[in-house]
Design goal:
The chain has 337 residues and is α/β, with parallel strands linked by helices. It has helices at 5-23, 30-41, 56-67, 82-86, 122-125, 128-134, 169-172, 186-195, 210-221, 227-238, 257-273, 281-292, 300-304, 309-319, 328-335; strands at residues 45-49, 71-75, 87-94, 97-104, 111-115, 136-139, 142-145, 151-156, 175-180, 251-253, 297-298. A hairpin with a 2-residue loop joins strand 3 and strand 4 (97-104). Helix 9 packs across helix 11 and helix 10 (227-238) crosses helix 11 (257-273).
Length: 337
């Protein structure tokens, strides 16, 4: 059933309250907060990258309080084992005698903060692969479903820092967004000094419950995606592969089909946030860099030359043309069909 404009406006108002609440906790990061909300409403996992102390963990903590959902934090360290995340079978006395009973780990929560995820070994990081894709974990051959909703918000330090491991491509591809947390300017730092105390967490108002969050995520799926916008998404993702665009000369491996699905979901999520019944080229362009930049593997020479995946996605957006969107009246007619 198509979503009504009345429902869209109602949900957009709820999202605005959440956005304002988070901006009252994390100063000077308006774009980061909007993209984080966009990713969550698209049912995606998010990777936050930045130097320590920029507010990555504080953002996730504030988000969990504002949404009133169960949240657990996992501090990734080199000695962390897969079972420490997923849970382990424990030998217990039961009515049938001694049996191994599965004890869920911290992964069984609505929102999981994977703090400094790239400090754990690749073996431990791989424990998240099934959870992030199928929303379940398998222990001793038995599958255990994770709660609904389920999000992983991971933080990582720049790979140049000591004691970090690069995330495998398969895991990177499971993150809807990779968001770079930038440092604050002098004006924002002054505001932080005036309104924050060291060691004291800011108060966060609860503005949305779990059921409202689920309803909004369901509404995102009902946002209309015009054929021309879907075609644009396909051409963007195809353009990341060798020989399909001028930009692709510096790319070794392009984005996967999951990237195209991610672009579509994120574009529809942004459209709902903006109070619109359909996704547009503008929505796709706004989320293209955080969706694609971590899914592209550069050629060695491109890395030596200082080229970044973010730069290439920006050039790709300039190279791939858009087509004329249908008129608003036509879009409304199609969305209500």
């Amino acid at each position: 059933m198509p979503i009504s404009e009345k429902d869209i406006q109602k949900y957009a108002t709820e999202i605005t309250k959440l956005n304002d609440t988070l901006n009252g906790v994390l100063f000077g990061q308006e774009d980061l907060i909007e993209l984080t909300i966009t990713g969550l409403l698209a049912r995606g996992h998010i990777l936050l990258e930045g130097l320590p102390g920029l507010g990555k963990t504080e953002l996730v903590t504030a988000l969990s309080k504002a949404l009133q959902i169960e949240t657990k934090r996992i501090q990734f360290t080199p000695d962390l084992l897969p079972g420490d995340i997923t849970g382990n079978p424990v030998l217990q006395e039961t009515s049938n005698g001694r049996e191994f009973v599965f004890q869920p780990g911290p992964l069984f929560a609505n929102l999981v903060l994977a703090d400094e995820i790239n400090r754990a070994s690749p073996k431990t990081q791989s424990a998240l692969l099934e959870a992030m894709q199928e929303r379940r974990v398998t222990v001793l051959g038995k599958a255990h479903q994770l709660p609904v909703p389920f999000f992983v918000l991971a933080t990582q330090n720049p790979i140049e820092l000591e004691g970090t491991y690069p995330l495998p491509e398969a895991q990177l591809d499971r993150f809807l967004f990779k968001l770079e947390v930038q440092r604050n300017n002098a004006e924002t730092l002054e505001r932080i000094v005036q309104h924050r105390e060291l060691g004291i967490e800011p108060k966060v108002e609860s503005v949305m419950d779990e059921q409202t969050l689920i309803n909004i995520m369901d509404a995102v799926r009902k946002i209309y995606l015009p054929d021309v916008v879907a075609n644009y998404i396909a051409r963007l993702v195809d353009g990341t592969h060798r020989g399909q665009s001028k930009v692709s000369e510096g790319i070794r491996f392009g984005a996967s089909p999951r990237a195209a699905l991610s672009l579509a979901s994120a574009a529809k999520s942004r459209a709902l946030i903006k109070g619109r019944i359909n996704a547009s080229f503008e929505d796709v362009k706004a989320v293209a860099i955080p969706v694609l930049q971590h899914r592209i593997v550069l050629e060695y020479q491109a890395r030596i030359d200082g080229t970044t995946a973010r730069d290439l996605v920006g050039k790709l957006l300039a190279e791939i043309p858009t087509q004329d969107l249908d008129t608003p009246a036509t879009l409304k007619e199609k969305a209500n069909a």
